[in-house]
Structures are given as structure tokens and as C-alpha cells.
Amino acid sequence: MSTTTPTPTGPLTKRPSTLKAASLPRWSPLAVAAASAAVAIGIGAGAGLHSRIQWGLIAAILFIAGSYALAVTVEGTRQARDRLATSLVWVMFLMAVVPLASLIYETVQRGIKVFDVYFLTHSMGVLSDDETGGGIYHALIGTLQQVLLASAIAVPIGLLTAIYLVEYGRGKLSKVITFFVDVMTGIPSIVAGLFVLSFWILILGFGYSGWAGAMALAILMMPVIVRSTEEMLKLVPNELREASLALGVPKWRTILKVVLPTAIGGITTGVMLSVARIAGETAPVLLLVWVNPLINTNPFEGSQASLPLYVYQQYAAGTDASYDRAWAAALALIGFIMILNLAARGVARWKAPKTGR
Amino acid sequence: MAKRIDVSGLTAYYGSHKAIDDISMTVEPRSVTAFIGPSGCGKSTFLRTLNRMHEVTPGGRVEGKVLLDDEDLYGSGVDPVAVRRTIGMVFQRPNPFPTMSIFDNVAAGLRLNGSYKKSELNDVVEKSLKGANLWNEVKDRLNKPGSGLSGGQQQRLCIARAIAVEPQVLLMDEPCSALDPISTLAIEDLIGELKERFTIVIVTHNMQQAARVSDRTAFFNLSAVGQPGKLIEIDDTERIFSNPSVQATEDYISGRFG
């Protein structure tokens, strides 16, 4: 042994802990936020900036810079970088939430005026644009039927395509399908509408109908369903498939009874999101369903109405009464989609694999 | 009930990569055969060729013969689904179906095959859970999800699920490697009971385990990384662990490997 280990000798001196460091109090981010908001209001009012958005942006920049500077002086650079990232995340979060919240606030505030049972249960009939009254019953029926028909076409095709891609597809064919699904995702809704218009109405000679609109909506819906279902099926652990196959279960029953039930929550969510997407489409409906102020409960014959189209029309009419109707219909559309989303979440939670703890 | 497996000249590929080369052996009925060997030597691949699970992997294919009491598993016209009903499998990680209750997990093999009578189902589930030494622990919560059990219980649930379809042979791919010693002991005891009824093949990295549970032991090795795995020797477990005929086996068992 040529080396000697240093032993702790000498008087026991109390050294400062190397694990503790100066840190800002927990309330400091809030204080910085309040201070930067106050300064921003001061700057904005003083410089005569009218837009509240400008005030908000100034406050955001001040908040980020302020929390960084404060942390650098008190806590050191590593902590300061952490604070910088945290404050950036918060600012971005607020920038995403503020428009959403203000959109809902605006729609509710303006839409609630004429939003009542009468509005939901009556059509426009022969009402002229500047008369008050009227309702969205015909548009609700139209949207509901078109969305249901579109789902009836798109959900089976989309689900089966995704199952093919994940469970069976090997080699070239599946690559080609994946490529076309990607291309389809990018199809603008008006192009889907034009396609069905030229094919169904101009070439085959059928008339305007909810069914024609539903076909265009189905084209828009399909790639969304394929993509989301594909992702959900890929999340199902391979071990479950192997466990089932090793029990002597045929592949198709394995998919039907083991893979799909395991992924059903996510698949449902994906389907509902695609429904929400097409429920707000205007362009194909305008081209294919035309417009009808009267109630038409037969989606296969004659023009219908739909909620987004109704909003567009009432807004275009440009009278006070029609503005109110447009906002109320927009509120109804948001409500419709929200109910769908909540239902999807309910199903997803109900069907999700249980941990049993 | 239990059947003999005769393997001759078996070679398995993943795409163009040869994973195991020219393996021949006999697995005796009503006995436990253990496969030992370093990682990547093809033990699990070989095990999976015995019930045609190898071809489930994309690119997996097999050459050679596997005779189950004189019937070639890879003969023309043989249905892999029927093979897997005859030769059950337990995997390394417990994998109960997460959407199913304990009862449904055990009943899954029968239900999904569609070949059962409703009145028999309760009896089969009880018998299988008793066979897997799990009945007393779960009999009061058969309707709870299987994923709520502990790891060792889940693995025994998987064994119960595998024996519920009454296979002739039970393949086990490192069934205890994710489990603690107590659960491992429970499963080893279970293997000892199950070999009265089934032919059992077990892959293990634990040589003490191979020595404890098996009647015969096969040692696999590979000459270099990327080379196909080969069967070095198969013999009575006692002989393999006391007086193996190949030097490499002794080196591996005594830890002087490489």
C-alpha cells in the first residue's frame, strides 16, 4: 500500500452545506406576473396603445425576462434556465387558452339571446331575413342525418382499413394505402365536395341531397379514422396477440375479441373527433346539399339544411335578427360537438382496460 | 394426454437471418425438459417453432420437421391454430387480457375458440385455477380484472389460462424471470405437479432452476454474435450438471464461459 487515505482530522468546523442554495420564495412567479402585468398596463396606457393584445404581449415578454433576470441574480444560471422554460410554457399555455375561452365567451354571450326551445324546435319556414323568430330545427335534422350517414360509410371502411394496415398489411400494398391515406388527410373539403358534385350529380345525374353531402363528408372523415385507429391498434401490446394466438385462437377472433376491445376506448375517441371535424364543414354541404329553409327529413331526396351552412346564410343576410340567429346556431353547433366529445370520453373511460386496484 | 415431440433437422430464419441451425432432439412425454444457454442462442426461437408461433413474427420461417407423436407439425395441410390448441404456451412476461376479468381470462381459450358448453365453463375455470394453485387466492374475486393481481399471481393466471384448453404440451418461455423468489418457488412447485399431466418444455436463464425442475436439459450455444444458435447437447439433467460430455457445457454451467 503506497497511498494513504486521508482521514478526517482536525477540529470539527461547521462548513456551509453544499446541498442548499439560495432560492426564490414559492410566490415569486405570481409576484413577477403581477408586477409585469402592472408595468405592461402602465406602458400601454402611457404610450396610448389601444389594443389589449399589445398589452398582453408586453406583459408576457416582461414576465419571461423578469423571472429570468430575477432568478439569475438570486439563484444562479441553471435555476434561471429552468425558470425561463417554465415561464415560457405558462405564457404559451395562456396564449392557447385565451382565444379559446374568449371564443366560447363571445358565442355564448351573443348566442344566448334567441337560444331557446322555440329556436330548437322550429324551422325558418317562409320567414324573411329581417323578421325575428324562426329556428334551426331543419338544420339540426340535416346535420344529424348527414353526419350519421357519413359515419355509416366512413367508420366501417376506416376501421377495416386500419385493421388491415396494422394486423395484415405487409409490403407494397400497405405502403401504397398508407401513402394515399396521408394524401387524403390533406384534401381540402371543397375538393371533396367538387368530386362528389361532378361524379354523383353531374355525371350520374342525381339531384342535391343530404346523401350526396354525406358522401363528401365521408371522404373527409375516412383518413382521420384510419390514422387514429391505426395508432390505437399499434398501442396494443404484441404480447396480448401472442397470448391469444398461443391459446389456439384464430387470428380474426384474436383481432375481434382481444385487440379491438383493448383499443376500443381510443378508437371511439378518434371516431368522435372525426365526427366533430365534419360536423362543422360548410363547403361540401353548400355544393351538394344546397339550402332549404323548410324541414326535410328525407336525406336521400331534395335539398336539406345544416348547421354550419345555416350560420353562414344567416350571417350573410346581414340583418340584426339574422345575426342573432347565426350566433345562436353557432352556439348550438358548439354544444352539439361538445356533447359528442363528452360522450366519447365517457365511452373511452368506461371501456378502458381496468387495473382493478 | 401428454405427447412426445421429435425434432429433426430444424432450422429457423428471421427474414434472411438464420437464427437456429439444424436442431434435432426428442422431448419425452410427462417430463420436464429445460433449455439453457446464453442470450441470443435461439432457445426462445426454438421453443416458438414447437407450436408454430415463430411464423407469427414477420419474416419468420422454418425448415425441418417437428413430429408430435408421428404427425409433422409443418406438414402440408396442418392448421397452425389446431397446433397451438394442442401445444400451449406461457410467456416471459405475465400477459393477462386487460379487458377481461380473472374468470374471463381463464375461460378465454374456450370462449374464443367457440368450443364449450356453458355449464362446463365454471368447472373448467375452477379446475384450471386449482391446477395453477391460484384458486384459493382469487376465488372470491373472479369478476375483478386480471391485471389487478400481483406479478406472480398474474403468471399463474396465465398458466391457468394455458392449461384450461387442455393442451398436450406446455411450452414455458422464461416463466419466472420477471418474478420474485417466492413466486418463482410457487411456479416451480406447479411445474412439478403439471408434469404428471403434460409434457413441459421450459426455457430458463436460471441454471439452479433448470437443475431443480427438469428431468432433461438441453444446452444451446452460438459460436459468435450474429451466428445461428446450435444445440450443443441434451441429456439427463443430472448428467448435464455433474458430468457433461461437452467441454462448452461445463464451462457455461460452472461460469467459466467465454
In words, what does this structure look like?
- The complex is a heterodimer of chains A (357) and B (258).
- Chain A has two domains: 28-111, no CATH class; 137-351, MetI-like (MetI-like fold, Orthogonal Bundle), CATH 1.10.3720.10.
- Helix content of chain A is 72%, strand content 0%.
- Chain A has helices at 28-47, 52-74, 77-111, 117-121, 137-168, 172-185, 189-203, 210-235, 238-246, 251-279, 283-288, 307-317, 320-351.
- Chain A is flat.
- Chain B is of the alpha/beta class and 258 residues long.
- Chain B has a domain at 5-97 and 168-254: Rossmann fold, CATH 3.40.50.300.
- Chain B is built from ten helices and ten strands.
- In chain B, strand 9 and strand 10 (229-236) form a beta hairpin.
- The longest helix of chain B has 14 residues, at 118-131.
- Chain B starts with a strand and ends with a helix.
- At the A-B interface, helix 9 and helix 10 of A face helix 2, helix 3 and helix 6 of B.
Write the layout of secondary structure elements.
The complex is a heterodimer of chains A (357) and B (258).
Chain A: H1 28-47, H2 52-74, H3 77-111, H4 117-121, H5 137-168, H6 172-185, H7 189-203, H8 210-235, H9 238-246, H10 251-279, H11 283-288, H12 307-317, H13 320-351
Chain B: E1 5-14, E2 17-27, E3 32-36, H1 43-49, E4 60-68, E5 71-72, H2 80-86, E6 87-90, H3 102-113, H4 118-131, H5 135-138, H6 151-164, E7 169-173, H7 181-194, E8 199-203, H8 207-213, E9 216-222, E10 229-236, H9 237-242, H10 247-254
Parallel strand pairs in B: 3-8, 3-9, 6-7, 7-8
Antiparallel strand pairs in B: 1-2, 1-4, 4-5, 9-10
Helix pairs in contact in B: 3-4, 3-6, 4-6, 6-7
